[in-house]
Design brief:
- The chain has 375 residues and is an alpha/beta fold.
- It folds into 2 domains: 126 residues, Alpha-Beta Complex (Aspartate Aminotransferase, domain 1); 220 residues, Type I PLP-dependent aspartate aminotransferase-like (Major domain) (Aspartate Aminotransferase, domain 2), CATH 3.40.640.10.
- The strands form 3 sheets. It has a 7-stranded mixed sheet with strand order 2-8-7-6-5-3-4, sandwiched between helices. A 4-stranded antiparallel sheet has the order 9-10-13-12, with helices on one face. Strands 1-11 form a two-stranded parallel sheet.
- It is globular, with a radius of gyration of 21 Å.
- It starts with a helix and ends with a helix.
- The mean pLDDT is 95.
- The structure holds pyridoxal-5'-phosphate (PLP).
Length: 375
């Protein structure tokens, strides 16, 4: 029998998520180099040493199921943010929470509004559930909240607001977000994705915690970025109890393994490591802005641990040339910006190496095109 007859029709249309290239993947093609990965917005400082130690201690217990509801971590998150535990749900990455949100709230035919471009998983989960993604083009690289309001209909179930937005790194202001929320019908749930929230410096940014429990907002956060635990897959959602209860209805019994739970508790308690990570990103942002301006490239000012850069030429070419130099970035074609690339902010030496390689690559390109013109 044809697979089209077996599979649910919704899943056949889905364009799978394409992650940034891993070091293992590029090594196969380009060989062993001193690789730096600036493609997936991970914490280039790595995890907290306390998290590593916690994982070591937990290793001998992996024959036992983990604690299903992640009570210790839930308690720690509740205490950190002065929230009752009932408003916290933890799962294996914000990715999985996004899927759980769709499973819990999106019926066949429901509309889900999101920016274009933004984190593509929002589209995938909507389609899995048979919902209809409604995309609203960014305005000046930023969420167009008025444009989103105009697209709200009787069928609207969810709105994703990625703040800072991936891939542009832009944020909405608290004032515009408050106005936006006040104009929305109460039946529409807003998912405020703050995967990069800890890196924001702009004082006008809304703090998602202010909305937890008060509005129809589900706040998403992750241990993958500032806490450096992307490989362990753990994230959390905060919100009104009735909304969070719905997520428990669709949650697997043991979605977060022992090592991830132990590491996350330790990471949460190592505030120093998180602060150092944020400082490194803020310094790196300023350095890269200065250097990109010197080279004559434009970029979107970012509140996240990455920068969306306009290379003023096909970014696939820049991407491939940088791979030869041992540097992995993310080209922008998939987001509809073929001359842009998204580059994670690295350590000081990595940022310097990236800028040196980029100058080399762009300069070579200029020479080649001059040679082409003269021949
Ligand atoms: C905006 C955004 N939300 C969610 C995620 C998923 O995070 P996690 O690693 O916790 O699944 C990412 C990952 O890159 C992201 O960029």
């Amino acid at each position: 029998m044809k697979i089209e007859k077996l599979a649910r029709k919704n899943i056949l249309k889905i364009v799978s998520y394409v992650p940034g290239k891993s070091i293992e993947e590029v090594q196969k093609e380009y060989g062993a180099k001193r690789w730096i990965k600036l493609a997936s917005n991970e914490n280039v400082l790595g995890p907290s040493p306390k998290a590593i130690e916690a994982v070591r201690k937990e290793l001998s217990k992996v024959h036992l199921y983990p604690e299903g509801p992640c009570s210790i971590l839930r308690q720690a998150i509740g205490q950190k943010f002065s929230l009752p535990e009932k408003r916290v749900v933890i799962s294996n990455g914000a990715d999985n929470l996004i899927l759980m949100i769709a499973c819990a709230f999106v019926n066949e035919g429901d509309e889900v509004i999101m920016a274009d471009p933004t984190f593509s998983v929002y589209t995938n989960v909507t389609q899995i559930m048979g919902g209809k993604p409604i995309k609203v083009r960014l305005k000046d690289y930023t969420h167009d909240l008025d444009g989103i309001l105009k697209r709200v209909s009787r069928k609207t179930k969810l709105i994703f607001v990625c703040n800072p937005n991936n891939p542009t790194g832009t944020t909405v202001s608290k004032e515009s977000f408050d106005t936006f929320l006040s104009r929305l019908p109460e039946r529409v749930i807003v998912i405020l994705d703050e995967a990069y929230g800890e890196f924001v410096e702009d004082p006008c940014n809304p703090d998602g915690l202010d909305y937890v429990g008060k509005k129809q907002v589900i706040l998403l956060r992750t241990f993958s970025k500032v806490y450096g635990l992307a490989g362990l897959r753990i994230g959390y959602a905060l919100g009104r109890e009735d909304l969070i209860d719905c997520l428990y209805q669709v949650r697997e019994p043991f979605p977060v393994h022992r090592l991830a739970q132990a590491a996350a508790v330790a990471a949460l308690n190592d505030e120093k490591h998180a602060v150092r990570s944020v400082q490194m990103v803020c310094e790196g942002r300023r350095y890269l802005y200065k250097e990109l301006s010197r080279i004559g490239l434009s970029y979107v000012p970012s509140q996240a641990n990455f920068i969306f850069i306009d290379f003023h030429k096909d970014s696939e070419e820049v991407f491939r040339a940088l791979l030869k130099e041992g540097i992995i970035i993310r080209p922008g074609k998939a987001w509809g910006y073929p001359t842009f690339g998204r580059v994670t902010i690295g350590r000081r030496a990595e940022n310097r190496r990236f800028i040196r390689a980029l100058e080399e690559v762009l300069h070579k390109g200029t020479l080649k095109s001059l040679l082409r013109q003269s021949s």
